[in-house]
Design a protein that fits this description.
Blueprint (H helix, E strand, L loop, with lengths): L3 H11 L4 H10 L4 H8 L3 H10 L1 H27 L3 H10 L1 H5 L28 H20 L17
């Protein structure tokens, strides 16, 4: 006697679609996997599994997603040409070309060839060992006070280092 699991397996076997059918469904749905699966009458997860096993379906899905971005860029360009300020601002914030011209809310600063910044602090270079120890002790006390939320701020020993250097 066939139980519910046997019925499910039979349904799954009956609903096997060829790569060409899956690719056609992905194209018709513009790369929307949920809509493509619905069109095929299968679960979204089943179609995702099928795509994962098929380089051809992976290529079709990538092509459809690229085409969607192309269409979005074309629509954005049309809006910029119509002087839609939201589109203009978004383009200036998102475009690498605009960022190179200084249109960015965030500027990243790097070292030579985009590497890390080198930082050197010579503030304490002329302090003797006792002054350095006193400063470390004062910093440790300050950290403890901050952690407990009270007390007077310890003063740092600047030794012979002129202020501002």
């Amino acid at each position: 006697m066939a139980g519910p699991k046997a019925d499910m397996s039979e349904q799954a076997i009956k609903k096997q679609h060829s790569v060409a059918q899956c690719a056609d469904a992905l194209r018709k749905a513009a790369g929307n996997v949920t809509a493509a699966a619905r069109g095929l009458g299968i679960a979204r997860t089943s179609l995702h599994q099928r795509i994962a096993k098929s380089p051809e379906l992976q290529r079709v899905l990538q092509e459809e997603r690229e085409a969607l971005v192309d269409m979005a860029e074309s629509a954005l360009r049309a809006e910029v040409l119509e002087r839609n300020m939201t589109a203009v601002i978004w383009t200036l914030k998102a475009s690498p070309e605009a960022k190179r011209r200084g249109w960015s809310e965030r500027h990243e600063i790097g070292g030579p060839d985009g590497g890390p910044l080198a930082f050197r602090d010579d503030t304490a270079r002329d302090l003797d060992d006792d002054s350095l120890r006193r400063n470390l002790d004062a910093l440790a006390r300050a950290a403890a006070l901050l952690a407990t939320g009270g007390g007077e701020e310890p003063r740092l020993d600047t030794g012979d280092v002129p202020a501002g250097d």
